[in-house]
Design goal:
Number of helices: 5
Order of helices and strands: HHHHH
Shape: flat
Helix content: 55-70%
Number of strands: 0
Distance between the termini: 20 Å
Structural class: mainly alpha
C-alpha cells in the first residue's frame, strides 16, 4: 500500500476505498479494542456473512486484543518510540 492509502485508512477506514470484508474486519477489530464487552453474536454473524470462518474471526479478535495488551504494557513501563520513528510525519488526526 502507498503512504496515501495507509494514511486514508488511519483517518477513516470506512471511506478509504477498502473492500467490504476489509471494512468489516477493521470494524470488528476496532470494537474488540474499544468495546470488547459489547461484542454480540450479530458482530460475528456480520463477519461470517463476509465469508470469514470462525477461525479467521478468532484470529482477528486475538490480534486486536494482543495489540491492546502490548500497547498497555508499553504505556505502563514508559516506553518511548525509537528516534528513527519520531522523524516520520504522523498521520493526520480524524
Amino acid at each position: 500500500m502507498s503512504t496515501e492509502q495507509t494514511d486514508a485508512i488511519s483517518r477513516d477506514f470506512r471511506s478509504a476505498g477498502l473492500s467490504g470484508v476489509e471494512v468489516a474486519l477493521l470494524s470488528f477489530a476496532e470494537k474488540v479494542a474499544t468495546q470488547a464487552d459489547q461484542i454480540r453474536q450479530e458482530d460475528v454473524d456480520a463477519l461470517r456473512a463476509e465469508g470469514l470462518t470462525d477461525e479467521e474471526i478468532l484470529d482477528v479478535a486475538m490480534a486486536a486484543a494482543a495489540r491492546c495488551f502490548f500497547s498497555k504494557v508499553m504505556d505502563a513501563v514508559g516506553a518511548e518510540p525509537e528516534a528513527r520513528y519520531l522523524s516520520e510525519e504522523p498521520p493526520t488526526s480524524r
